[in-house]
Design brief:
heterotrimer, A alpha+beta, B alpha/beta, C alpha+beta, A: alpha+beta, Glutaredoxin, 4 strands, 45% helix, elongated, C: alpha+beta, 5-stranded mixed β-sheet, 5 strands
């Protein structure tokens, strides 16, 4: 079932990270499943152990199902200085999840990440491909509600 | 020729004409006459002075003071105060901050000369600014060894943090006679507080590509890779687009411009790992592995990607190269200071009025960057510390703010230029919290390959967390410094070796913050 | 595949166009579309400007994009460029402010001082 994503790339090991990105981005639950690892392993002739090694090394990959929208809040020093802890508290409260958890409706997963390189607008977070800057508690609430509104 | 002590430039444009500039100019002449100053002060009409919405404005030289929104009634005051008593009329002066803080510095920009001005998705705009002239010259007029020589002469040093001379790096790989060599761009910009490379790739992707092309020709590589972090979505899109355009225009590919030189450029995407900014870890990741660093030597210049000689350069380093080739080494060496030529891009962050980025000459004092470009400290607070060089940088107190920002001057303060990030903290910041945040970052990013870094970071994190929670003891501070010294001596790569700088500088320069948590 | 000669011609043509010389465009509006700009709402600003320009049928206005200048605290940033006049850079623009810039500056030629960050220094 992952064939169409995998076969876009030549069967060489250096394409592994590309392929894993492609599989994860196209999965509704944004993760790389055991079946996917099996298929990639056969295609690239690389052991599943190697693939799991890679998957668990890089923070952007997940081997567990996640929500439709992945919130990555930056916790690096520049955002920390500008109040990311406060934003984290707000996100935990309004989503009613802990770090790494997914909301019951499957809409959001809350994660922490390292510097996103938008530090002039700290604190920042990324939701899927979009970056949001100069975050305040009020702004966070609006962003979350807007996304919720778009799902209905 | 008549000698005047002052010149007044008076701006004549549509807006000032409407505000009665002519009448004001007349009364200015009369007032100067009345005070016997007409022989000393000269009035010159000029076009718009460039301050919109400020009615009639004049600029006085050599004082370089601009008065804005002036009316006929203000003239006597200006003449008697400024020209007779030598005291500027403050209430009419253009807010100095207005002009200085918004100086984008484009006149002295090299790597970011186009970012924020041209359309990054239109190759023709880049070509229109003189883009690919350096590539043309490198390909048609210069031999590879001449390119290496020119870059050596320019004094360009790597902008990734270590500051290794770029020309010298190339000269190790260039003479090797093997079938395949590579140029790899380190675009894994992960140092907290740094986004200079992002601006180059998003705002002027062809500038980077041109640098890659020239480097590839210099060292004889027919393939180049740009390893870019997975979080930089827009950079990835813009670079993909730019590479495609370069092929369409025949600037990349086979027999470029009818020469015998072939070059292909590929993108490699990371997936979130700070350690991949280390060049050998980056190569491992590019090959489809975990990003664990390799043993050095052999250095990548001799044995790098797929065991072939590989030159790894930072984005900002390569973005300097087109201008060096186009304008010559001497032109470039005129920027900056002895031993550290050219410009440097700094990101100014934290508790400043205007966080952002600037490109200034190497050797510009830290204070100038914080006050001139960052607008000083926000909300009228006091400066407390600046973390200079990224998370792997040094916490500098107020008394060290006059340090010149270049590789050599910073060394005297046991500090580093690093990635050029300047995180400014005001009086409210607590160094225990800040150091905790820095150590938390390294603890998370340690790759786990070597014990000093993996275990060292864990112990440092426990110690600083205890101190933060009021459970620390004074001897823990010495323990932390000793531990990070050991990590510096024994860690496999730069990641584990980096902790010493922030740990030692925070504890030594701001010891009182740590002791306050122990009462 | 292009030759060097063709490249030089493209360079000349592009130089003219960027200065709006011999162009059908009177005004160029440039929206800063770097990550920080987009994070602060540049997409909505771009959309609004395109919207206003097409609603008013302004065929001599060119709307385009650029990267970041580096002044993160002023994002989203919009430049208005007219031939022979200093370029004006506006900062902290939102859709409402963008509408005002189109109406007052682009249509009526009056700079909206309230939002000016800097004007080009020649």
């Amino acid at each position: 079932m992952y064939e169409k994503f995998i076969k876009k790339y030549a069967p060489t090991k250096d394409n592994l990270i590309y392929i894993l990105h492609e599989i994860q981005d196209n999965h509704p639950q944004q993760y790389v499943s055991e079946e996917a690892v099996q298929e990639v392993s056969e295609y690239l002739k690389v052991s599943p152990a190697h693939i799991y090694g890679v998957l668990t090394f890089y923070t952007m990959f997940s081997t567990k199902p996640r929500g439709k929208n992945i919130i990555r809040l930056c916790e690096s020093p520049p955002c920390f200085l500008r109040g990311s802890e406060q934003i984290l508290k707000k996100l935990k409260e309004s989503l009613d999840v802990k770090i790494g958890e997914t909301t019951k409706d499957g809409l959001f997963t809350l994660e922490l990440c390292a510097c996103l390189g938008v530090c002039g607008n700290a604190p920042v977070m990324m939701i899927n491909e979009d970056v949001y800057g100069d975050l305040t508690e009020k702004k966070v609430e609006k962003i979350i509600n807007d996304i919720k509104g778009r799902q209905e | 020729m008549k000698f005047y002590r002052s010149h007044i430039l008076i701006g004549i444009d549509d807006s000032s004409l409407q505000s009665g500039v002519k009448e004001i100019e007349n009364s200015l002449r009369q007032e100067l006459d009345k005070n016997n100053l007409s022989d000393e002060v000269n009035i010159l009409e000029t076009g718009t002075l460039g301050y919109f919405g400020t009615g009639v404005s004049i600029t006085v030289y050599p004082d370089q003071i601009t008065y804005v929104n002036i009316t006929k009634e203000d003239i006597p005051e200006i003449v008697s105060e400024h020209f007779l008593k030598g005291r500027p009329v403050r209430r009419l002066m253009l807010d100095k901050e207005f002009t200085s803080k918004y100086d984008f510095g484009y006149k002295r920009r090299i790597v970011l000369e186009n970012s924020g001005l041209i359309d990054p998705e239109n190759i023709e705009e880049y070509i229109g600014t003189g883009g690919y002239e350096g590539w043309e010259k490198a390909l048609t007029e210069m031999k590879p060894n001449q390119i290496v020589e020119e870059v050596k002469q320019s004094g360009l040093r790597g902008r990734g943090g270590a500051g290794f001379p770029t020309g010298l790096k190339w000269s190790f790989t260039a003479p090797l006679e093997v079938e395949q060599k590579y140029v790899v761009v380190n675009a894994d910009e992960g140092e907290p507080g740094t986004f200079k490379d992002r601006l180059i790739m998003e705002g002027d992707p062809h500038k980077l590509l041109e640098g890659v092309m020239i480097a590839s020709r210099a060292v004889g590589a027919s393939k180049a890779y740009i390893y870019i972090r997975g979080e930089y979505k827009l950079c990835i899109q813009r670079l993909q687009h730019a590479i495609k355009q370069a092929y369409d225009y025949g600037i990349l590919g086979k027999n470029i411009f009818g020469s015998d030189f072939n070059l292909d450029i590929y993108l490699k995407i990371g997936a979130g790992a700070y350690v991949c900014g280390e060049e050998t870890a980056l190569i491992e990741s590019m090959e489809g592995n975990r990003g664990n660093p390799r043993n050095k030597p052999p250095f990548p210049g001799v044995e790098g990607a797929w065991k072939a000689p590989t030159v790894v350069n930072n984005v900002e380093t390569l973005a300097n190269v087109p201008s060096i080739i186009k304008n010559g080494a001497d032109w470039y060496a005129a920027f900056g200071v002895e031993g550290c030529t050219g410009s440097k891009v700094y990101t100014i962050l934290g508790d400043v009025k205007h966080p952002g980025l600037c490109e200034v000459d190497m050797g510009t004092p830290l204070r100038t960057i914080i006050d001139g470009y960052g607008g000083g400290i926000k909300d009228g607070k006091e400066f407390k510390a600046a973390l200079v060089g990224g998370a792997a940088g040094v916490f500098l107190p107020n008394k060290m703010l006059d340090v010149k920002m270049d590789f050599n001057s910073l060394q005297e303060y046991a500090a580093v230029l690093g990635s050029g990030a300047i995180l400014v903290m005001n009086e409210d910041a607590d160094m225990v919290d800040m150091l905790w945040s820095v150590i938390r970052f390294f603890r998370h990013e340690s790759c786990g390959k070597c014990s000093p870094c993996a275990n060292g970071n864990e112990i440092l994190y426990r110690l600083i967390t205890d101190i933060r929670n009021g459970k620390g003891k004074e001897e823990d501070l010495e323990h932390m410094i000793m531990l990070s010294e050991t990590m510096k001596e024994s860690s496999f790569c730069a990641l584990g070796q980096s902790l010493l700088l922030p740990v030692k500088s925070a504890i030594e320069n701001f010891r009182e913050d740590f002791l306050a948590r122990m009462k | 595949m292009k030759t060097l000669e063709e490249l030089r011609k493209i360079r000349q043509k592009a130089q003219q166009q960027m200065k709006l010389r011999d162009s059908k465009h009177r005004v160029k509006v440039v929206v800063g579309m770097g990550t920080a700009g987009i994070a602060m709402g540049a997409r909505e600003v771009m959309k609004t400007i395109l919207d206003e320009v097409s609603k008013r049928n302004l065929s001599d206005v060119l709307v385009t994009q650029t990267g970041e200048k580096g002044l993160s605290s002023m994002e989203p940033v919009v430049d208005v460029i007219e031939e022979g006049k200093p370029a004006v850079t506006y900062g902290n623009i939102d859709p409402e402010k963008a509408r005002r810039i189109v109406a007052e500056h682009i249509v009526n030629g009056k700079v909206v001082n309230d939002y000016v960050v800097v004007t080009e220094q020649k």
